Amino acid sequence: DSGGYCDPVTLSDGRVVLTPSSETSIVIYDPSSGAVDMVDVSAVVGAAPVEVFMGAALASNGLGVMSPYKSDYIGIFDPASSSFSTVAVPYVKTAYVGAAATANGLVVFAPGKASGVGVFDATSRTFTTVETGSTSGGRKFCGAATAGNGLVVMAPMRESSVGVFDPLSLTYSAVDISGVETERDKYWGATTAPSGVVVFAPWKAPT
Predict the structure, then answer these.
(1) pLDDT at 207
(2) pLDDT of the residue at 2
(3) pLDDT(58) > 80
(4) Mean pLDDT to the nearest integer, 41-45
(5) Which long-range contacts (CB under 8 A, 24 or more apart) does 78-84 make?
(6) d(C-alpha 155, C-alpha 135), whole Å
(7) How far is residue 84's CA from residue 74's CA, in Å, rounded to a whole number?
(8) From CA 116, how far away is CA 173, in angstroms rounded?
(9) Digit-coded pLDDT (tens) for 118-141
(10) Over pLDDT 70: what percentage of the chain?
(11) Cα 26 to Cα 107: distance, rounded to the nearest angstrom
(12) Statement: the pTM of the whole predicted model exceeds 0.90
């Protein structure tokens, strides 16, 4: 079954936004008071959405940006006004899985079935892509995180390499891991440790 929510994002004021994957409302939870607010987005996602978004990140300007998975738009939540808006993108089924924000105002989407890395400028609200050169199909990467050196690192699911995106030069590179990890379905999820390294959660990889 399709899940309801995914990828919680912590806002600058401490509230937590739950990304609606297959739900019709955004949930905003305040851990200090326990209050829960909801923003209805059914007018955009429809009455019965299915995996519309898969991944989210807090942009440097404070917007919550949601990566398109089975939709042709990026979701944008503005916590200042509690409003929801979208930016149209070309439709690719299961396009992106995971998002990471950069210091220069970008939100980078890790490609699932999309051929390239998705790059969203949260200030100008413009979207571009940077090709990876990958020949694999779906689930290339599942998860992204910004390392301590500012590079966006993508967790390989069915890729044989770790994806690396430089937000300053807008270039993509790959670090081959075929000699280290041979499972087809490797990792799902990425986070940055205090030391600046990026850690992947194993899906079927042994470590």
Answers:
(1) 83
(2) 59
(3) yes
(4) 95
(5) 79/11, 79/12, 79/13, 79/15, 79/17, 79/28, 82/28, 82/37, 82/39, 83/39, 84/26, 84/39, 84/41, 84/44
(6) 17
(7) 10
(8) 12
(9) 999 999 999 999 999 987 888 999
(10) 99
(11) 19
(12) yes
Q: What angle do CA 75, 78, 82 make, to 5 degrees?
A: 110
If you search the block for the tokens 């200030």, which residue do you land on?
Answer: 123
* Upper half-sphere CA count for residue 39 (Cβ side, 13 Å): 22
Per-residue pLDDT for 1 more than 60? no
Dist CA 196 CA 176 (whole Å): 20
Taking CB atoms within 8 Å and a gap of at least 24, the contacts of 42-49 are 44/73, 44/75, 44/84, 44/86, 45/20, 45/71, 49/20, 49/21, 49/22, 49/23, 49/24
Determine contact, residues 138/149, Cβ cutoff 8 Å.
no
pLDDT value at residue 137: 80
Q: Kindly tell me the sign of the dihedral angle through the C-alpha atoms of 79, 65, 45, 4.
A: negative
Listed in sequence order, the residues at least 6 apart from 1 whose beta carbon sits closer than 8 Å to its beta carbon are none
Region of residue 108 (left: phi > 0; alpha: psi -120 to 50; beta: else): beta
